[in-house]
Design goal:
Elements (H helix, E strand, L loop, with lengths): L1 H4 L25 H4 L4 H13 L10 H16 L16 H4 L2
InterPro entries: Fe-S_cluster_assembly_SufBD
GO biological process, one term: iron-sulfur cluster assembly
Length: 99
């Protein structure tokens, strides 16, 4: 009989004391941050663009051209990481930038 008195109430979930509003956090960068101009990234994109052979006789397949275009857009919209960025806080990227 004593076991019944000490069993927890399993029918009702506990009611929180304070209701917290549910907020959604966007993980995608906003359009204003995508327009940031980084001269090093722009120079790197131009070097990569110049490294492609320019043969007018054969153009790359449409899927490859779409992939290249989206990659260039991603590269140009991403600034070079600094120590102010959390993932690169302890990483010195200056030797890559200066090479």
């Amino acid at each position: 009989m004593a076991a019944i008195a000490f069993t927890p109430n399993v029918q009702r979930p506990p009611v929180p004391l304070f209701s917290t509003p549910k907020t959604r956090v966007s993980v995608q960068p906003s359009s204003t941050s995508q327009l940031a101009y980084d001269p090093f990234v722009h120079k790197l994109a131009e070097a990569l663009d110049d490294s492609l052979p320019s043969s007018s006789s054969s153009s790359p397949p449409l899927a490859l051209q779409n992939l290249r275009d989206s990659s260039v857009g991603t590269l140009l919209s991403t600034p070079w990481p600094t120590r102010k960025d959390e993932p690169f806080r302890f990483t010195d990227t200056s030797f890559i930038k200066n090479s």
